[in-house]
Design a protein that fits this description.
Blueprint lengths: L1 H15 L3 H35 L8 H9 L1
Keywords: Coiled coil
């Protein structure tokens, strides 16, 4: 944990050493990369759900259907 804190602190110091305009650009780049990572994760989850649905591992129904099944 100490090593991660040290790396994080070094990253903060490196960013603070940049001029304000460069910090804004870096923030924009990081924001876009995080959004892309989330998109990639969602695409993987969608592909997995589609695969499970194709294999018949997912059932469809209403909340009432779910509650009835839980009562069984």
């Amino acid at each position: 944990m100490l090593e991660k804190t040290s790396i994080f602190q070094k990253a903060i110091e490196a960013v603070e050493a940049l001029d304000p305009e460069a910090q804004v650009i870096l923030l924009d780049i990081i924001s876009k990369r995080l959004k892309q990572q989330r998109r990639d994760e969602l695409l993987k989850e969608i592909a997995q759900a589609e695969n499970e649905y194709a294999q018949g591992n997912i059932r469809r129904g209403s909340v009432a259907d779910l509650m009835a099944e839980l009562d069984e």
